[in-house]
Write a structure and sequence with these properties.
Aspartate Aminotransferase, domain 1, Aspartate Aminotransferase, domain 2, 13 strands, globular, binds pyridoxal-5'-phosphate, kynureninase activity, Kynureninase, pyridoxal phosphate binding, PyrdxlP-dep_Trfase
Length: 374
């Protein structure tokens, strides 16, 4: 049965066949070429070339790798830069989105990942705007709404929001929308340019497999770049950083989203990890993600004490979340048996299905082990 056109892609990853790894939505597995590339960067680029490497590709790496990420999220070149963490990029994006507004509120997805909510709180405090958490089904946007911050995929339930409809809703009242793509970048087709999204951020260590703490990305569309005034005016976002001028003039393009010296080792590990996508079609990745998560949900839906939190329709990302009163103990027992997912307090088991390396057998083994434990 050839239901998996991506089966061969698993061979590109360094994975132990005894382990069922279902946590690629927290920390993606390493593609095999990453170790070799990092060694080359350390030994040759850093070791032999030393500081000359800054002018031999390092300085522009944030924009160059940004363009590669951009291709995966529907952004034409020159609009994505890889830098900092998602938390920091959220701060830059939200501050820029509400700067000089005469509107009075920021709306945040009520189920947001905590850091997004904390950063939004801080932006609200610094700018004097109100922060209103709202259910994405009833955002109730108004002409007083300056910006809306939404998570494309809910980290807790795996629900996927309708980016087209919600972006339109925000624009209908003249509000800006900031999308957090942490759980969707690299696993489903995203059309930032086509949908007219105002700003977006995302991390690269989840489904993009960039490695622990690899730098995040930020999308600033060309039309918005001139008006994008971010609060962290570091020297690498300057128009002419090496002129060492006393005053700040932002780069005219997306580089104005940069702050300080880029983390080259992590950046180039991510660069290597992105090679995998040169060989796959995102439509296939999405189709396999839906098939894998659907198959797993069918296997576990009727297990005793289990409630499936992830939507059964196509409005889901590539994780399955199950509620069980003893979720924490169950996940510990699963991990002891080499089935690695994660637990989110108080009662959620999460299983991330990375279509590039997870198999239908992984889903079967995870479901069978869970059934035995119950
Ligand atoms: C993983 C995740 C983050 C992580 O932010 P960091 O700054 O990298 O720690 C932020 N937001 C969402 C929605 C996430 O899923």
């Amino acid at each position: 049965m050839n239901r998996d056109p991506l089966a061969h892609v698993r061979d590109l990853f360094d994975l132990d066949d005894d382990v069922v790894y279902l946590d690629g939505n927290s920390l993606g597995a390493p593609p095999k070429n990453v170790a070799e590339r990092v060694q080359e960067v350390v030994k040759h680029q850093w070791g032999s070339r030393l500081i000359r490497s800054w002018s031999e590709g390092w300085w522009e790496a944030p924009e160059r790798v940004g363009n590669r990420v951009g291709r995966l999220v529907g952004a034409a070149a020159g609009q994505v830069v890889v830098c900092d963490s998602t938390s920091v990029n959220l701060f830059k994006a939200l501050m820029a989105a509400v700067r000089s507004t005469d509107r009075s509120e920021i709306v945040v997805d009520a189920g947001t990942f905590p850091t997004d909510g904390y950063i939004a709180q801080s932006v609200a405090e610094l700018t004097g705007l109100a922060l209103r958490p709202a259910d994405p089904d009833r955002l109730d946007l108004r002409d007083t709404t300056a910006a809306v911050l939404l998570n494309h995929v809910d980290y807790r339930t795996g629900r996927l929001l309708d980016m087209a409809a919600l972006t339109e809703q925000a624009h209908a009242v003249g509000a800006k929308v900031v999308w957090d793509l942490c759980h969707s970048a690299g696993v489903l087709p995203i059309e930032l340019d086509a949908l007219g999204v105002d700003l977006a951020v995302g991390c690269t260590y989840k489904f993009l497999n960039g490695g622990p703490g690899s730098p995040a990305f930020i999308y600033v569309p060309t039309r918005a770049q001139q008006g994008f005034h971010q609060p962290l005016t570091g020297w690498t976002g300057h128009q002419v950083p090496f002129a060492m001028q006393p005053d700040y003039t932002p780069d005219p393009g997306v580089s104005r989203a940069r702050v300080g010296t880029p983390d080259i080792l992590s950046m180039l590990a991510l660069d290597a990890a992105l090679d995998v996508w040169d060989q796959v079609d995102l439509q296939d990745v999405r189709a396999k993600g839906l098939a894998l998560t659907g198959h797993f949900m069918d296997l576990v839906r009727d297990l005793p004490g289990i409630e499936v939190l992830t939507p059964a329709d196509e409005w889901r990302g590539h994780q399955v979340s199950l509620r069980h009163v003893r979720a924490g103990a169950l996940m510990d027992a699963l991990i002891e048996r080499n089935i690695i997912g994660d637990f989110r307090a108080p009662d959620v088991l999460r299983f991330g299905f990375a279509p590039l390396y997870n198999t239908f057998e992984d889903a079967d083994r995870a479901a069978t082990t869970l059934k035995e434990l119950l």
